[in-house]
Amino acid sequence: MATSSIETPINREDYMRLALILAGKSDPKPTNFRVGAVLVDEAKNKILSTGYTLELPGNTHAEQCCLMKFATTHGRLEEDIADLLPESCVIYTTMEPCGQRMSGNLPCVDRILQTQGGLHGGIKKVYHGVLEPETFIGENTGRARLEAAGIECIHVSGFETEILEVATAGHHQSGQH
Prior knowledge:
Largest sheet: 5 strands, mixed
Strand order of the largest sheet: 2-1-3-4-5
Order of helices and strands: HEEHEHEHEH
Low-confidence stretches: 1-5
Distance between the termini: 26 Å
Number of strands: 5
Strand content: 15-25%
Number of helices: 5
Radius of gyration: 15 Å
Mean pLDDT: 88
Helix content: 25-40%
């Protein structure tokens, strides 16, 4: 995986590549996936915020960090950003947003759904590289919940192997001691 940054992403693959680079910044741990996220104004091709797993204090997920950083930039709490998001707001994430958190933190799907009450309808699309493996929670219902709320979920293919290698770094692999 290249570690250089992407100056101005221009397509889905570039944004997913940037999310993958971000995921690689997260410390490998056996208890979480390393995920990257990029919040984008799709109409203006403008990055609004980025995040990766454990970037901020606490047991933080990539989408959570991305939204928290956007909120901080605008002097708001994360739950108060809905009206600030542009009409064509989308999020790129290397892995399907979580629908459940064992830690008791608000799942990323709920964080995305919170934006729906905004002036422009919040996050409209979620671009993801892979579905969440059933390692920690079992079947993730995140995508189904997003789609039921009218949020389009789009798979960006071609990154699956690399995303899963980065995401599971630090996990115990069968056959290793």
